[in-house]
Amino acid sequence: MGDNRNFLIAILLSVLVFVGWQHFVVTPRMEAEKARQAQTQTPPAGGAAQGSDATLPGVQGNGASVPSSGPTITATSLSRNEALQQSPRVAISSDQVDGSIALKGARIDDLHLRNYRETVDKTSPEIALLSPARTEKPYFAEFGYVAAPGSNVKLPASDTQWRVEAGTTLTPTTPVTLAWDNGEGLVFHRTISVDENFLFTITDTVENKSGAPVTLFPYGLVSRTGQPEGKAFYILHEGFIGEFKNNGETAIKYAAAIKDGPQTVADTEGWLGVTDKYWAAALIPEAGKPFVAHFSAEAGATPDAQHERFQADFRYEALTVAPNATATVNNRLFAGAKVSKLIDHYKDAGIYRFNLLIDWGWFWFLTQPVFKAIDFLARETGNFGIAILIITVLFKAAFFPLANRSYESMSKMKKLQPEMERIKEVHKDDKMRQQQEIMELYKKEKVNPIAGCLPMVIQIPVFFSLYKVLFVTIEMRHAPFFGWIHDLSAPDPTTIFNLFGLIPWMPPAFLMIGLWPLIMGFTMFVTQRMNPAPADPVQQQIFMWMPVIFTFMLASFPAGLVIYWACNNTLSALQQGVIMRRQGVPIEIFSNLGLDKLFAWRGAGGGKS
After folding, report:
1. What is the pLDDT of residues 293-313, one digit of tens each?
2. Cβ contacts of 176 within 8 Å, gap of 6 or more
3. Is CB count within 10 Å lower at the N or C end of the chain?
4. Would you state the pLDDT for residue 172?
5. CATH fold of the domain at 42-359
6. Mean pLDDT, the chain, whole residue set
């Protein structure tokens, strides 16, 4: 009965996982894809022709609208170098980033992350976060003004040529100031500075030398064309994101933004932008000033899913500049890597809940402590793989008392198996009597048949927390272990099907079964064989194949997670083996593997088992 109960619990959990996956992941994805296909079959809003200026309006209020972020993507695009040559530029240079600012439009549209490469190869290209308009996938930030309704004041636009007023290269110690005169009494100044990491500060000043007051609406926008690549497992959010003090979190996925239409949020403090797995571009309006944030998306000129444009923007309330007066607006832009310690620093420095830029998931109360512990151990040991091994030992130590009772119960059940088989044989025609006798045996020997599920159950939260850490934290990206593991966040690159690289053949993805997954599968097989065998033959067959199934499943998971699981299984087998020895329970697995002479397991009577 205990075996059947455990089996039913396992089946129930599996069904819940399957139903949850279908409901929360598969169904939304199918609906989003249908919406995207329907949208790509419809001309862009405003009927813009291919290659013309498409309408992607931002927030509106009193008739003032943030402008479109640029022309629709066409079948042809410029190379990055060709696009950079379309405008004079001011260079950006620091230890973390390099790139340039386009004087045409005063856009921040060229940014590389100097300490992050596209692959584990140190000579591979730097990550290009922002790209100019008219490239294959433009991605940039823009700041400016829109005029009050009915006003014909001349304002800087995306094609306005600014001049350099001060500074030649933007560095953490030397800001750059740009200027533009509209020839009608308004002079615009823009000072751009950057800290030692990824935070830009944009200070816009308007001088009104005319004889009449001018009303303007300052704005900022981030525009991106194309969706992230490699959205594996869909366990994290990528796309529109924002956090607002009076409205909470706004995280709108790309396809959902097309399906549901533009989203608008009014607040006085917060941030908004676009996030990827490891990188983000986020606008931070000046705290305390009312603004309206807006998220909008449009399909591209082709049915290609990558050709979609997304704009996150905000617009302040009206700013009136009196004659012979000046007005100043301060904005900030984060454009860079989502390093946990740095993101927390910005949050502590006053950016409202900026730590939520990293998707820690629903179980953040477990995921964040797990990451911080691993990150601390990695700094102390110099290796994230060693940190994972240490954290595995620490978790085993923390759960030791609970696991101990569970293994003791399983050992007793294994010891009682001959008696249970005798009861089944004696009462083979009376199932009710059979169950009653077995329950009496459990009660007499103080055995809890459900206790065997506890070791697996208590590992599940830790397993998913570690998986989330390995998958979403940039600190784990390209973090090496030893030997052939050069990236703990990626699957084991070896496979048994080409003899771990000895045969010059690359098997298909489902046959990429590396050495660490094989080690994990073997340790799972050992721990399983040490547990009491299910009474039902069907259950026995299922449990016998579980190590094989898990080996294939986990082969595509991050290597760090597989290493954790293998280490955890090894510690569990050692712990259970010691308890079985104390209980006088024979361990057939060692005899079957020819290891019985290495382990002198003595039973309760002192003889070898």
Report:
1. 999 887 654 445 455 788 999
2. 90, 101, 164, 166, 167, 168, 169, 170, 191, 192, 193
3. N
4. 97
5. Beta-galactosidase; Chain A, domain 5 (2.70.98)
6. 80
